[in-house]
Amino acid sequence: MTPLVTLESRAVPLLRDNIDTDAIIPSREMRSVSKDGLADGLFAGWRYTAIGGREIDPAFVLNQPESKGAQILLGGSNFGCGSSREHAVWALAEYGFRVVIAPSFSPIFQGNCIRNGIAPIVLPREAVEAIAAGFADGTPVTIDMPSCEVRMGLAVFPFSMEDEARTMLIEGADAIELTLRHRAEIEGFFARDAAVRPWIYLAD
Amino acid sequence: MTEGPLTLAEKIWSAHRVMTLESGAEVIAIDRLLLHERTGGVALKSLEEAGRTVMHPSRVFATMDHIVDTFPGRTDKTLMPTGTAFIVSTRESAKRHGITLFDIDDPRQGIVHVVSPEQGIILPGAILVCPDSHTCTQGAFGGLAWGIGSSEAEHVLATMTLRMNRPPDMRVTIDGVLGEGVTAKDLALHLIAALGSNGAKGHIIEFAGSAVRALDMEARMTLCNMATEMACAGAVIAPDDKTFDWLEGRPYAPKGEVREQAIAAWRALYSDDGAVFATEHRFDAAEVRPMVTWGNSPQHAAPLGAPVPADALSKADQQRAVEYMAVTPGEPVEGLPIDAAFIGSCTNSRISDLRRAAAILKGRKVAEGVKAICVPGSTQVKAAAEAEGLHEVFLDAGFEWREAGCSMCFFAGGESFAPEARVISSTNRNFESRQGPNTRTHLASPETVAASAIAGRIALVSEIAA
What we know:
The structure holds two protein chains of two kinds.
Chain A: E1 6-9, E2 11-14, H1 21-24, H2 44-47, E3 72-75, H3 87-95, E4 99-102, H4 107-115, E5 119-122, H5 125-132, E6 141-144, E7 149-152, E8 155-158, H6 163-171, H7 175-180, H8 183-196
Parallel strand pairs in A: 2-3, 3-4, 4-5
Antiparallel strand pairs in A: 1-6, 6-7, 7-8
Chain B: H1 8-14, E1 17-20, E2 26-29, E3 32-36, H2 40-49, E4 60-63, H3 83-97, E5 100-102, H4 112-119, E6 127-130, E7 144-147, H5 150-159, E8 161-164, E9 169-175, H6 184-195, E10 204-208, H7 210-213, H8 217-225, E11 234-236, H9 241-247, H10 256-266, E12 279-284, E13 291-293, E14 301-303, H11 316-325, E15 340-343, H12 351-361, E16 371-374, H13 379-387, H14 390-397, E17 400-401, E18 422-425, E19 440-443, H15 446-455, H16 461-465
Helix pairs in contact in B: 2-3, 2-5, 6-8, 12-14, 12-15
């Protein structure tokens, strides 16, 4: 995973509440057993003029010229609710987003972001709206992961994130590799627990 | 063990703590991992590409439910031409890694949250995860169960653990008695309407109170199923004799002496008196009425006959939903003509759901022009229903009777309702275009779906009985 330490970009506002993962990547856009090839289907129901079509709807914010190359997406509350499909995050990542800022996230979506190098940053609605106001005139937004700050012009918006998640993002770490370093502890736990809860341990 | 009174979730969590990391997160042992062909196959593929192996395949199970067709005589082919690859890839990976698979032609096949309890895979006190948001369904058995992504599923495959901070606890206590004809689905929609789609804010919800204890196991599953629509990190109900009786004799549940030993341990699975929850809510079951949704979020729910909020046009998300759903603020959705009716999904497709719907359909006909479909939650549910003759009731009424799977709850296998179709549905999500292009989904209980299918419009059971 590519580390995410600091980043400067425009922030694209999509401030609807309850943006669900069906909207982020519709089922019909998930065509292969793969994490790739999903960017084209990102927000397909809103980005294109017809369901299943590819004709660009110029009114949708991602299609506006100011959004080109943006790495930060601004959302409403409960962002990423619905299906656990990680394809939603893979599509966002492939499209180029590294940060989503919203007043709240669905827990599964939040976890999926962290596993894929996207920072899910929680800020109060007023802060998200203030950042969104800078979109039209092209004001860049800075994400500073080590100091837990979002900055725009003179405005500073501090955020908090669990240390585990923040470290994983900053280091671009592979969680499986880190956990497997504790393989002995894990197997030791299972050996002890099998005596306490034998009904859990089926024969491999 | 931690001192002092503990919540149920805390007791289970503590029993699974392998170690605490420097970051403060914990490495938590996972007892059961479930996979399905849409999000599980990619986790297995990714694991293989990284050159890793499955640590404990005996505790991993897979089923075909999301993409597989539900037409009679189905094969690996799906309406969506690319669906076959998901089925084949999951099957081949499961075989390579020694994972038990409930394949298309297996009598144990079905929706993951229906087959896991049927097989005794979820157990009280266990931690079970699955790359599927409705995994919280299985907390009905007094274990911790929650949905994860494919990458986390890959982490569990490789390490049989997750790295997590323990989610905060919320208790939702429901006392009193549900009224006649009011179901767990109505209760769930009532709670979501009251607390909001973000109401659980990443907490593990414990459902408690006399109304919850009174629910049978299948109704408890329906209630826990819908908890994810409030952004919970999991849902759980303390296990009791109903739980233990329901699990008796299930293939992967303990038997004989081990079962006795397990039940003795399971009896300690409750929140201690004085246990502290980060958040508490209380509800009176007597206030719950049959519910139906009017908008594009499960929180857009109201009792049948109650109006869509009169001020809906002044709120951004409600305005969009009113326009998309073609409903009128200040007027009820009851009475709106429907194009389709669907009974199925991990929310309401178990044998008791089908029995209650069939009791309404018996001797009646689906209204002309309404496409009505029933999809049993599992091949076992289907067989049980057929043994009772329920399939004949559905077929005689004019319903299609399908093979088990997730089916038209969403768009996965490529089948969909007609553009802009108004659908009354026993499922869990009324999102835009979820059941087909620009479909208008109204969530309700199987009873209300059956009654509406007969009436040809959104209707209460009492209206068609008259």
